[in-house]
Amino acid sequence: MSELKNDRFLKALLRQPVDRTPVWMMRQAGRYLPEYRATRAQAGDFMSLCKNPELACEVTIQPLDRYPLDAAILFSDILTIPDAMGLGLYFETGEGPRFNKIIRTEADVQSLSVVNTEADLDYVLKAVSTIRRELNGRVPLIGFSGSPWTLATYMVEGGSSKDFRHVKAMMYDTPEVMHQLLDTLAKSVIDYLNAQIKAGAQAVQIFDTWGGNLSDVAYREFSLKYMQQIVAGLIREYDGQQIPVILFTKGGGQWLEAMADTGADALGIDWTTDLGNARSRVGNRVALQGNMDPSVLYASPATIRAEVKRILDSYGNGTGHVFNLGHGIHQFVDPEHAKAFVEAVTELSPSYHG
Ligand code: CP3
């Protein structure tokens, strides 16, 4: 494979010296970009776009052609795993994800088996290898998966939820059934991420979007424990290169020490936690990725720049910081504001290094 021309993202994740703070944006390929909307229209619907490796590659690279980003992220979705388990994922316009089959009972859980990545998620692996070839060493490629808990919320609720009534009832009433579901998912995630690594992913991120909705004990037992199993089961070196693992629990600020104990290389931080405070708590055990409130991108470029400066100051000097948003970029953000964000990081961050 071609040599990496820009490795500051991988270096910062491993807390090695860099010339400036690397930057990428969660959901950087998406509806705020007119070129994304055009390719998506060409594909038909969202899942057809995910299942077409050439078009998935095209949208992965679109934000890199606009902004000086330091990483690409595979264009796919966390819900490909439940889809491959036979749940039948579809997207209702304006209503988010939906499943034909919902998991509610012990029998439903027992009917599930560990995903067969090679057979049923082959389109994701093809997208990874296509993107890697097309990037030609420009920046590293991030692979990803949802966390078992976050995947379970969608599978049991049947889609997005505000109160998580079904999944929490299952967790509290029949914890052993919940554990069986999470165990099947953790094994699936390990297989899926290792296959992405072998296909060319150079770092992997686990999205635990809904872990922050759990009580302290429940988070440790139903979310963190399974992410820990995943970290332990991942390929950490491939093709002579270390493969950094990033754990991101949205709303997970109170568990940073415990998350660092999993052996992950980096933690994603949302905007509700102060980055400098997070750094002093985890020390040099892990790198930190984040953490600008994505809504700052609705403000003016001057305000965005000031907020970038504040976050750089908060982290302070030295490596171990990957700049990002604290969650995905919103669909109504002006692409010029995203540009102001990325450029502010590239222009202001060199003085915090060297
Ligand atoms: O970051 C990237 O650019 C890579 C692509 C990516 C998508 N989804 C594309 C997408 C990634 C990393 C995800 C992860 C994902 N998907 C998460 C975890 C991260 C997070 O945001 O918390 C979750 C919870 C999902 C599930 C999901 N997929 C939802 C709830 C939705 C609907 C969102 C909405 O606003 O309607 C999706 C669809 C989705 N995934 C879109 C994109 C670009 C929008 C679909 C479209 O084009 O219409």
TrEMBL record:
Name of the featured protein: Uroporphyrinogen decarboxylase
Any one GO MF annotation of this record: uroporphyrinogen decarboxylase activity
Organism of derivation: Thalassolituus marinus
Quaternary structure note: Homodimer.
Pathway: Porphyrin-containing compound metabolism; protoporphyrin-IX biosynthesis; coproporphyrinogen-III from 5-aminolevulinate: step 4/4
Primary role: Catalyzes the decarboxylation of four acetate groups of uroporphyrinogen-III to yield coproporphyrinogen-III.
Reactions catalysed, as given in the entry: uroporphyrinogen III + 4 H(+) = coproporphyrinogen III + 4 CO2
Keywords, in A-Z order: Cytoplasm, Decarboxylase, Lyase, Porphyrin biosynthesis
Gene (UniProt): hemE
